Amino acid sequence: MDVIVCVKKVPDTAEADVSVGAGGREINKERLTFAINEWDNYAVEEAIRLKEEDEGTVTVVTVGGKDKEDILRRSLAMGADKAIRLDMEDPEDSFVLANVLYTLIKDQKFDLVLFGAQSGDFNSGVTGVMVARMLGISHAAMVNGIEVLDGRTKTSRELEGGLNEIYEIKLPALFTIQTGINEPRYVSISGIRKARKKELKVMTPADVGVTEVKPMLSLEKMYLPPPGKIAEIIGGSPEEAAAKLASLLKEKGAF
Amino acid sequence: MMEVEEGNFDEAYDVYACMQCGKCTGSCAVSLRSDLNIRELMRIAILNENGELEKHEEIWDCTSCGICTVRCPRDLKPAEVIVGMRSSLVEGGTIPITVRDALESVGTNNNPWGRPKSKRAEWLEDLDVKVKNISEGEDAEYLLYIGCTASYDPRIQSVSRAAINVLTKLGVDFGILGEEEPCCGSEPRMMGETGLFEMLVEDNLNLFDEFSISKIITLSPHAYNTFVNDYPECAKRLKEDDAEIPDIELEVKHYTQILEELIDDGRLDGEMMNEFSETVIYHDPCYLGKRNNIFEPPRKILNIIPGARCIEFDRREDRSLCCEGGGGRMWAEGTGTGERNSIIRVNDANRDEATVIAVACPFCLSTLEDARATAGYEETMRVMDIFEILDEVLK
Question: Residue B128: what pLDDT?
Fold first, then answer.
């Protein structure tokens, strides 16, 4: 099974103080640290596990400048066989990015394409699905289990309310991977050094034949949500506070 | 042959000299409550049964206290054999998730706590005194190396602030690196991430060189130990591999050694302090005591505090009971069941009627604080770093 995994480098914003830049269209990035998108890391691990179970290759792909190569090196150290960096600015618009990735992937040999279900920066969760549509292949989003059958997969998707649904899907196909599908292995620093020998191909948009498409969305303004006005801090002793809280909950119809 | 970063086990650790006497297992701080059996692991190393290592989850129970190495009659280093075994697991990628996350965080955030680099200096915010920041070009005789835990853990941050207050009062010329301060690498090394440790040694020595830092005071015995005992050897090895390592000689001291010097120079004495009417029992940290034979300085400091009644644990100095905070154990719960060593320790202190357990290590402070609360001594006992005690008593 030949698998292509699309990966992206994103800022870690879980705990960092995020502020909007002067232009009002992007966040200030200077003090943030960047790493492989969490969902993508699970997708790379899943691809490598599929390869380890069966024959095949794993190719990781990213779009961006040379500073994005560390996530490819890391994926190669995990066990991917080759990496491709498309040397152009990450378009950020999902539709434009999907078009770029589609143009690159359509000429590659693959049975399966994996994406992270979403990316930790914009969290749109649509790029992978758009690429599947452009490639004209089956897809499943939020995938939390893959079993390979003959020319097909048994694929589990995570639904709302704790439900799973299972499909048999004919290959080639594209899945967007949910975190928790596996437990990604640790990649050691010496492992990354050793993986320097593996192929990392840099391609230009012209090499791939990327055509310009218009973004479907345009970003007007970015701002932090204004603080709400309806929060109430209940003071007093624990007994008083509990009594007040209970009466408030009753009043609002919680019981 | 079992592959480790430095070569094979027999060459790296001389394991064939092991006569299986069992002194290591008999001394081990966790063998009573864990399956960790260092004699068995030495045997595995001798026989090169390396395929079996994944099954030995208890390899992650070792606190790296070093007592097995101290007591080995053949002068072997069983504690290092465990590091080597962890290293081979790290290279294979299959390690406890919490250890994995800690190591990944060192790679991206330069600390194992998963906290952003940009918040490393937040503990400074409540401080009244002005501190020199060497990374902003200010000159100072000493770098006060805070370390990851004392930078981020809310309980331990109080030690960092106390250190600033005390050293400033005593007129020590020091500065910090603020947000630019890196992880020292001690915990990654003990968790077996040799490549990451080497990278940190190279980066950190270049950083110290860039800011002309040659004298360092550490809060943590773990940072002290790695700067003094691991850095020179690692730097030498890296130089042989043509890495760009500056020729600097670091003079590193644990803070209790600096305070001892101040006492000897007449710059710190009981006259400068208010009464501290407490029964104080000192807990020797493994990395200061067992690993570096520094027993006297902390005791000397506590003994000059007026009003303090200093008592000792039965198990003290090189027999001190490890708190189980080292060797990556802050990020690995361990397989052990039964009473934690830290609980045994606070119970011992309570039996001896101590009102303050004095410590000189952030991990000891963290584990003993937890144990104090768990064992129900919140009203009767405090766990304090020596810097915190001085901050409280200095006039």
Answer: 87
